[in-house]
Specification:
Order of helices and strands: HEEHHEEHHHEEHHEEHHHE
Strand content: 5-15%
Distance between the termini: 25 Å
Helix content: 25-40%
Length: 324
């Protein structure tokens, strides 16, 4: 989720199909890899203070017949009603950002296996694509290059996720993001022109593969931030990414995914890993052993026990069904 306040304002970011093999879009974008698809069934005031008014002195009126002294006449300032002050969060977020943040909280629920589900049907019926578009446009009006690096990473991840929600709702109902084409031979919408930032027309592919994975260190952690509206993907977070808490938040996202059957499914001494670790092997060290080291860094007790017992990666799989 220095330049933190700026971020909160801005945030709070042809392939022929061969008959012999299925092609899966690598993660959420353009790095296409020839790999057999495996589908798992998965049963995130001001009080107005008036000037002090001295009491008007007692006035005694002399008359032939003495009369009691008149009661003191005192002017009392009427206090104005307290002025309502916005909460710190709402005061620091632009309206489109707050509306989008509220939408994520409202539409994301936790399903089986720790899977975050997005209520596309509800968002579609309520016309909430308008709020998502307004948020994406608000981000596009910012200059991420002027931000600190953690804020830039958060910016781009937030923009990617918002644009993905937008493209799903533009085509809803749809069973999988791969049904939405960007060309005759495409396997998804990732190459479509999506938005203009700093005068450059960019696509989802541009954000993920040419910006997030290429400009910044530790590309492995990018995969836990961007979501391609699929069950097999790491969770779509129910809160905005923010530079101030970037490392802690994405490390938690890595733990959540790796210790779920969508990330690593344990079968005795064999591990069925997400295809993300195959498609983007270089991001995770370039080998199965390096990927296992990555797993160990975030492993919970069950996976750690399996790794200590010598479990190896025996295959990969990914479920492209819509995360609803």
């Amino acid at each position: 989720m220095r330049h933190t306040l700026l971020t909160l304002t801005a945030l709070a970011a042809p392939l022929m199909l061969l008959p012999t093999a299925a092609y899966a879009a690598a993660d959420c974008g353009n790095e296409t890899v020839k790999t057999a698809e495996v589908t798992y069934t998965i049963q995130t005031p001001e009080q107005f203070v008036a000037p002090t008014v001295a009491p008007i002195a007692n006035v005694q009126v002399e008359t032939p017949t003495p009369r009691p002294t008149a009661a003191p006449i005192v002017q009392t300032a009427q206090a104005a009603a307290p002025v309502a002050t916005p909460s710190p969060a709402s005061a620091s977020l632009a309206a489109p950002v707050q509306a989008y943040a509220n939408l994520l909280q409202r539409r994301i629920s936790r399903g089986e296996g720790g899977l975050n589900l997005f209520d596309y049907a509800g968002a579609n019926a309520a016309g909430e694509i308008t709020a998502i578009t307004a948020y994406a446009d608000h981000l596009a009006a910012q200059n991420p290059d002027a931000m600190a690096e953690p804020d830039q990473i958060a910016y781009w991840a937030n923009l990617y996720n918002a644009l993905t929600l937008k493209v799903i709702l533009e085509n809803y109902p749809v069973s999988s993001i791969r049904k939405i084409k960007s060309g005759a031979f495409s396997i998804g919408p990732w190459k479509r022109d999506a938005i203009t930032v700093n005068g450059e027309i960019i696509s989802l592919d541009t954000i993920e593969h040419k910006i997030l994975r290429k400009r910044y260190a530790n590309p492995a952690m990018v995969h836990y931030m961007v979501n391609c509206a699929s069950i097999g993907c790491p969770n779509l977070s129910n809160k905005l990414w923010v530079g101030a808490t970037l490392d802690a938040d994405r490390e938690q996202a890595a733990r959540d995914f790796i210790n779920s059957p969508r990330g690593v499914k344990i079968k005795g001494n064999e591990l069925k890993a997400s295809s993300i670790y195959n498609w983007f092997k270089d991001d995770f060290g370039g080998s199965k052993s390096a990927t296992l080291d990555h797993f160990r860094r975030f492993a919970g007790p069950e996976l750690l026990t399996a790794l200590d017992a010598g479990a190896e990666i025996d295959g990969y799989g990914y479920d492209w069904s819509l995360n609803e």
